[in-house]
Amino acid sequence: MILLYIDPGTGSMLFSVLLGIFTAVFFSLRKLWIRIKYTSLGGKTEKMDREKIPVVIYSDSKRYWNVFRPICEELDKRGIRTEYWTQSEDDPAFESVFDNVKCRFIGNINRAVTRLNIMNASVCLSTTPGLEVYQWKRSKNTDWYVHVYHTVSSGLLYRLFGLDFYDAVLLSGDFIEENIRILEEKRGLQKKELIKAGLPHFDIMEREVGLRTFEKADTTTVLLAPTWGVNSLFNQLGDELIDSLIATGYNIVIRPHPQSFSAEKELIDRLMAKYPENAHLHWNRDNDNINVLGSSDIMISDYSGVLYDYTIIFDKPVIYSLVEFDKSPYDAYCVEEDPKMITILPEIAYELKKEDLPDIKAVIDNALTDTQKAEGRAYVREHFWYDHGRAAINSVDYIEDRIKRLKEEKNA
Fold first, then answer.
1. What is the pLDDT of residues 267-292, one digit of tens each?
2. Which domains does the chain carry?
3. I need a surface site. Which of 120, 140, 176, 252 has the fewest CB within 10 A?
4. pTM of the predicted model, to two decimals?
């Protein structure tokens, strides 16, 4: 009798492969069955066209409602039939009242992807990168995919191939276009339609800031708000950074990137257990970040997009740290120059190096009183935020025109 031995590593790999095959077969059969059900009751091409939704907005998290809200309001005002598909059952969208926008909860990732992959729409608008790269595929029944940024972006800091299979991108500033064109040329991609639209959530944030009063602590409040992933502050400096901040005696608010709670759950759970809340340390998970940004005096971050929310909307000082920046997981890896979002940091924020941690209080105090970065903040406010207050109008102008052109192309 021959005994077969498979080491744990190989066994784990084989299990992953078999699970992947099973999952692919399962979703393929499920997708086929849904298609059969959809077309069995006289579902011919004409019927598919009649049932086509003019606009579907797909949101993978409730935290993006601040991006989509002004766009939904504009679509509703213009009478454009729209469905807002969200993976968050408690999405704030459900509290809104619209005449022409219907909000739907489409379930967790597996249920959502199944539905997205057979979606029947003229235009799909989303902040989610990775179309055609992971589980989310282009539906044969959906004509046009449009990406909108949920923050200031250089177009290079998404994971590899993040926007490759979109048809159009709504830009927040001029500098992004060049980066996208470089990637298209290097990868032999068809050119996308690039539309300078602005940032919907900035327009809302600016308006909300003018209406709110922010509570201030008795002492300086430092907001620690890193991104997630291997290059983040939590992974680069982690405990040592938090220990140094606590030693300042200042009020410390820690707001992890929402993705950290799922992608880095073990890390966040460990940090929250080691540093429980007390009178001078708070963990923030608000869906709306306006209050936590408005009530703090200074931010410490890395290259997170929230750094630009703080800089552009609130015009407050920022300290950044990039102990080591590995470009390999991002589209930036395919471009020789570093992303502008990285190279401009020294002009708008004060750098924190690892050797500065013992004297971090002095770094914070200097940033709070020094004014030399004010000019840099004014520059990004002008060049990174296109057409203040009109992002929703510009976005819907494009969507409306695109739907019209799709009909004309089909009837030609």
1. 999 999 999 999 999 999 988 889 99
2. 50-199+389-411 (3.40.50.2000), 213-383 (3.40.50.2000)
3. 140
4. 0.81
